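Problem 12. The chain below contains 456 residues. Write out its predicted structure in token notation.
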Amino acid sequence: MPRLKYGSILRVFVILGLLCIWLQIMLSASSVSMDKDGEELMNYNDTSEQVLALVPPELHKYLTVHHKNISVNATDRTAPKNTSDIRRAIEMINEAQTIYNEDIYGPVQNDTIIIAIQVHTRLTYLRHLIVSLAQAKDIDRTLLVFSHDYYDEEINSLVRSIDFTKVMQIFYPYSIQTHPNEFPGMDPNDCPRDAKLEEALKLKCNNALHPDLHGHYREAKYTQTKHHWWWKSNRIFNQLQSTAGHTGMVVFLEEDHYVAEDFIHMLHLLRATADKTCPQCEILCLGTYLKTYQYHSNTDKVEITPWHSSMHNMGMVFNKTVWNNIMELEQQFCAYDDYNWDYSLLHLSQNRPGREKFKVILCKGPRVFHIGECGIHHKKSNCNASTVISKVQKLLQNAKKYMFPSRIIATITAGGAKHNKKLTKGNGGWGDIRDQELCTNMTKIGRQFRKYIYYA
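Solution.
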């Protein structure tokens, strides 16, 4: 009997032990999952019925999730399996400069509105941005340029499924994905972020002599965003064959933005008003970071004010002339110790020799919204995109009767203290000489001829 009891107790302990091991494995997997960027977790959230109800049925196709997507595009039939394959695929796409749907909507004209969308990996947000773009009036007269820093088959398939306007994809070729163990990614011999100068010198790690202004060493995931923005802008204004004579407006969006149906209409009104009353307004802005929106009183109102990076960087618009002015100071942009592209532009704005700061004309009732709850700078425990998207959808639905104003009323303001505060130093993260040199070298690539690549 004691032997039987001992055997029973032993079995219980074995079962409990196995259970504990299983729980540990599950918790470990959960922990790994939680350690992923918020955008990766968010990508698996289903779009709520509440959100779908406010999307026209014919656009639901852009919200359909295919976890094991098989693209019908010839260029995607063989998925890249390693870094070398991804690099070759990116090089081929960038050389081809393919414009999808050009046969339907006609070639790019010099005054075509170009909408440049910076894309990382947040697929769910990108789906809803595309849905919002599809509902915008006159979207069929634009060119959408999706600029990617991550090669992903499902994202590619989604972008190439767009049928409501012309589409182009460009790929940032110096990404962390394509350089996982070397600069511009993280080299194994890179200095640890928080290493002290003395420690870095003993380690003989890369660029030990050049920490940032806060004494920290570079982090690739932060430097990549500024590099990508700078490369994308150079690519669009200076390198693509289709933009060689382009004089029109370029709208800068990101994957977690959402546009109102009259954003193109408002863009034309802003441009016309700036030409008439504020020729010195170099930047137009379609979005703001207000917490509440009063469309009944602000839909037709715009403001002329000094441009400030953290307030006027969403739905920002300018043309080749303004880009050329920025390029005159590209050394300052690339050398400024700040990993944010918008604060680097603010530094240029405040230090233009013999010229005033950038002025912006912006919508008081925004036409571009930020729906991203998760990402590099925003990591919330609940990364369900549907909540914010639904809120924006309802807001725009309620404001529908105030959209498409026939005219707008401009007011001029000097800006608050935050607008006019002089930047004394950057936010850091950009002390590495290699980052500064890569940034500068991006401007030395000239216009590239479009290659026609045919697939069997």
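Discussion. Residues 23-45, 68-78 have pLDDT under 50 and may be disordered. Students who got a different answer should revisit the alignment rule from Section 12.3.
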